[in-house]
Amino acid sequence: MKAFWEIFRLEWRALVRSRAFALMLVASVAWMFAVPHLVKDDGTAAGAFELNVRYSIGVVFALVLVSLASSAAGSLSKEREAKRLQLTLVRPVRHFVVALARMFALVSAGAAILGVSSAVLVAQVGGGRACDHVLAPVMESPKAEADRLFDEYMEKYPDFREKVESQGEREVKLYLVQYVKDQLQTVATNATASWRFDLKSVPQDAEMAVRVRVTDLYGRLKHVGGEFSLGGLKGVLSHINKMIVRVPLEGESNSDGEELVFRNGGEASVTINPRKDLNLLVRADNFAWNAFRAWLELTSVLSLIVAVAVFLGAALGRSVAVFSVVAMLVVMVVSPSVLEDYPDPTTMNRVDRMSLALTEAAARVTAPFSVYSPVSALESDSCVERAEALEAVGVNVVLLPLVFALLSGLVMSRKSDLVSG
């Protein structure tokens, strides 16, 4: 432990005294102050806030992530090539301790920059803004519903069985999952629709609202109207369609209200996608606490990527390690968006299926890096949940860096044995 803190202290001191760290810190803070004057919003306060958060803290995080990940990937390999790593290991210091201390030094430097940038954002926003716990309707999982539809179609429709035989069961089921996610629910004029929510953990006197996007059945841009009710709470919807709106629920709550009911009071039928465009909002704490939890999650993502980068730097040459890290970051961003709209398998040829299979494999490999989305939560006033933030810190800051440090130490010891031999 003493060796760890000594190496960490030396690495941290070298980092914060470097010109690169100073430039990154100054550039990040300057960008935070410049964004509100550079972005062009839609003229609404909500739009301005959303763009400000996305392009301020989001860009700073991307800058810190790419810079420190590249530095982490090249640090060990660079020192090994320059014969400086052997000098560090002359003392009785285990290889994995060197890797772990370097990981924590890089992450703490990045966390400091993200912390300062987050503090600037909180000062810009002020203390009057609050966040909401976001609850989704209690529905069958898309995969379970897709499996049920698959079995039903296989039994009823011979044409469907032929397509499954020609295209493959896996591709068809994945397409059905996306079909279920995009399924719309139509509500006719003067008709009602209802969705159940799990409100066991919601206080009786909590301030609540509905976040929804209601669309005219034919997608026309026109006025829609109706009323939401939840127990004794009611809220009136009166807005132009296709827009996400917040409908406050007012009145006296009661313990029987776990079913949200919508009555269409407009002149035409409307559609709602309950899986994507319907949420119940429960008022939580202020923006400062939400920004702090978002900072924890951003730091945890940075920690995991730096840990992987240090491992790659221990195993590969500098240029190959840096290229691998940059490629991993690109795949992490691109692959989920490619799979978001799963293509119809009947329109794909063999090359398309191979490309899609590679994209799915890349998405699975990089899934731990993209499981958290704190910037999206901040810009939508959604609460970054405390349990989620603590889990992110425990897994990505404590557990996985230790695993990658052990792997890095194993690789470094093997390489040193080969060199000495």
Output the radius of gyration. Answer: 26 Å
* Number of contiguous helices: 13
Which structural class matches the secondary elements?
A: alpha+beta
Strand order of the largest sheet: 1-11-4-8-7-6-9-3
- Largest sheet geometry: 8 strands, antiparallel
Question: What string, H for helix and E for strand, traces the elements in order?
Answer: HHHHHEHHHEEEEEEEEEEHHHHH
Total number of β-strand segments? 11
Q: Roughly what fraction of the amino acids lie in strands?
A: 15-25%
Mean pLDDT: 85
Low-confidence stretches: 86-90
Helix content: 55-70%
Query: Span from first to last CA?
Result: 30 Å
Topology:
Layout: H1 2-16, H2 19-38, H3 45-81, H4 85-88, H5 95-125, E1 130-135, H6 142-156, H7 158-167, H8 169-181, E2 185-187, E3 192-196, E4 208-213, E5 215-216, E6 223-230, E7 233-240, E8 244-251, E9 259-264, E10 270-272, E11 278-286, H9 287-315, H10 318-340, H11 350-370, H12 374-379, H13 386-420
Antiparallel strand pairs: 1-11, 2-10, 3-9, 4-8, 4-11, 5-10, 6-7, 6-9, 7-8
